[in-house]
Every structure is written in structure tokens, then in C-alpha cells.
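Ticket closed. Logging final result for Fe/B12 periplasmic-binding domain-containing protein.
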Amino acid sequence: MICQKGSRSLIVIDQIDREININFPIRRVVSLAPSITESIYALGAEELLCGVTEFCDYPKEAQLKPKIGGYSTVDIDRINLALPDLILASKIQYDRNMKSLEATHRPVLILESSNLPGMLKTIEILGQCSGKKAAVEMLIKSLNTRIESVTAKTKRLALNQRPRVYFLHELETWKTFGAGTIGDELTDLAGGYNIGRDFGTGYPRPTLSEIARANPDIIIAETGYGENPQAPFEKALNEPQLANVKAILTRQVYGVDSSLISRAGPRMVDGLESLARIFYPSIFIAGHQL
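Final structure:
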């Protein structure tokens, strides 16, 4: 990403390689993605937020910001009423709502990542455009240090040394993380092998019989959403068709908050650390690496 600062504007290259001209300084921002909202708070730039989605739930203070609709169903009228200098959107809005967003005659940046380097790039863009250069440097340094403290211990593990992991990403369908997803990358960096990648890219939906044949060592259910936040964990632990897989027989079934392993914000690093503790409890203890 390159920003060229003039006396009145910024030219920003967003994360789908679009050059966007933005008036500077930016005083009011609408965020259309929970990951973006989290990143803005992590930089201490939350005073810029004049609108967020109904799904922007972290930190708790974000829930008090004015709402401009859902994640994929943004309300253009509410965005206009918020009078933003800048709209921060993700790829789903680019695909579904870009014409409507452009019709507001306000600059729209697309910030989208499916891996840790992409998340760090999002933070860099947000920091430069909000004038939080020092905060960016501190946050990125901290996150990189935490990532390295995990990967220094896991990066040399051979495939046959890694636990085979299955993720229950969606309760109703048993949809999982395939290759190229956040969960797939975090599993690899934490020292595991994501068997979901054997079923394809994106978010494949293997049958329970296929999962049983794959015989995971560990099953991780994404928790923290819906009317019963623990329902995915309970489902994974008690599914009759998986009763004989190794993860069930050895009680290696865990719940991990979905926002840590599915949301491309700074807490991805929390997710990485959580997975490392699950995979190697004797090495990564109580949140602190030995």
C-alpha cells in the first residue's frame, strides 16, 4: 500500500488494488465490517467512527456506535445520514453493494484479508489514513512478536508430528475451513494440520461419514454466536456418527470463540495462541509461551 500525501488529499491503494482519492484529514468514518471496526479500536481511532454494522460487537463500546445496517445488507440512507468522510468496506460489500456505495459520492476503501499478513496490511492502511502512525508501529510490532513466539516453536514440525484437526465452522451443515481460509492458516502456524483442506478450498461441506473417515485427532467447534453460544461445542461432542473418531474417544473436542479464528482482525493472533495451547498444552501454558 502506498499513500501519497498532498496538501488536501490522500491517494490510497486499497486491498483489491484500487486507487482511491481521499480528502485529508479524515474526521468521520463508517465501518461496514466487524474486523475493520476492531482494527480501528485497536489503533485508538474509535473517535472517527460515526457508523458501524449490527455485527460490530467488539469491543463492547462498538455496540454503542450508530448502526448503519447489517454486514451484507447495509442501509445506504443511514450511511448518508452519518455524513462520513470515508466508507470502509469489505469484499462482500464490493460484490453486492458497490454501485450503491459509490452513489453516495464518498470514497470507499475495500479492506479484505484472509491471512495474517493481510490483516497487518489492513492495520497499516487504517493507521496511515487516520494519522495514527505511531499506534500502527506499536500494534504491528506487538502482533508480530506474539506471532513469532508461537511459530518459532512450531514451524519446523513435520506433517507426521502435527495433530490432525477438524473445525466445525457452521452448526447446521458441518461446513469447515478449507484451504486458503483464516482458520487454515492459523492451524498451520499453530502447528496443526487442518484436514478441511483435504475437502477443498474456501468452506467445503464434507459429510459426517467423510469426517469420520478422516479421523481427526482434535475437533474444534466455533462458539460464541447464536442463541446458544455453546451449541456447536455440544454438537461436536455428542454427534453419534463421530462417536468412534479419535478426537471423541480421547476427549479432544474444544470450543473456540468464532471471532478469534474467523474474523480478520487483530484478535486473529489471540486465535493463533489459543490453537497453539490446544495443540501443545505442555509447551504453551496459560497463555504464556515457555
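The longest strand covers residues 218-223. No further action required.
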